[in-house]
Amino acid sequence: MTRIGILTSGGDCPGLNAVIRACVLRGSRDHGQEFVGILDGWRGLVEADFIDLDWMSVRGLGKLGGTILGTSRTSPFGERGEAGGVAHIKANLRSAGVDALIVIGGEGTLAAAQILSSHGVQIVGVPKTIDNDLSATDYSFGFHTAVEIATEAIDRLKTTGESHHRCMIAEVMGRHSGWIALHAGIATSAHAILIPEQKASLDQICDWVQQPFQRGRTPLVVVAEGFVSTEMTQPHSERGLDAFNRPRLGGIGDQLAPIIEERTGIETRSTTLGHIQRGGAPSGADRVLATRLGRAAVDAVKDADWGTMVASRGTDIVRVGLEESVGRLKTVPPERYDEASFLFG
Fold first, then answer.
1. CA 338 – CA 345 distance, rounded (Å)
2. 272 known ligand binder
3. Active site residue ranges
4. Which segments of the chain have a pLDDT < 50?
5. Interior CA angle at 137 toward 223 and 324, to 5°?
6. What contacts 79, CB < 8 A, 6 or more positions away?
7. Is 11 annotated among the ligand-binding residues?
8. Does the annotation place 262 within a ligand binding site?
């Protein structure tokens, strides 16, 4: 009987629990597999912090946000380095009788999984990112929910903006890719959508704001946290570094608001949605996608198809190599941005 460890690592995301549920139900009912939950991502694997998972422990999880296993941004290698970290992890897996791992995470998590796989750890990956920036999959669960949350929040901002005749700026997540901003901006008929992939000058942004105001409309700007204007050299960051020594982004909306107000004379307010986009119950679409990916992951384990990641391609769920999943980020191509640009101004 195959004994499988499941971990969730990196930022939390709506749909993680639905993946865990699907893995355990499919694996235990159809393949006779056993499951071990690894707590708090790579930290739990390094420290051998494990719990047993069975069908009773995953009942009703499909609709719950977050992850019952917890998560962290811990490196699986830590101070031991790659070789020592791999040896330590293998020893922990042997002690717990764990034969294989299902690793649910984004680019950083899957990159670590690829390294472990290259050292002989039997791994299958499941893509997780609300940013939808993994190139090997058309969509990742959590993205649809994040767009829905952002759309609802921006609709609410528009009504207060209309009441006070203000320009409203909504800042959404998106470090390197602007998928959330693009989709939420189109859905809410934003007058400007600012994303990391496309630079715009402050003069251009102000022009986009002034045009609708002169028509009696309330200007709406949707900006991704990683946006860089032509006057900037790097994304706005004033919150230090994260666990991977990356700048903690956020606050570009607050930077833009006084500039727009000064240059246009239009009262301008900014709201940062932040972690609201990660929280709460997953949408119906994300519950379905997460369930399909979880089912596919345990099927890949059954087939001993190690070093792969399950992914969505069109309406199908396929397997791709882990190296493909972390090869490059999926950013918004110019033609997709052009589809929205006719709305601007």
1. 14
2. no
3. 131
4. none
5. 110
6. none
7. yes
8. no
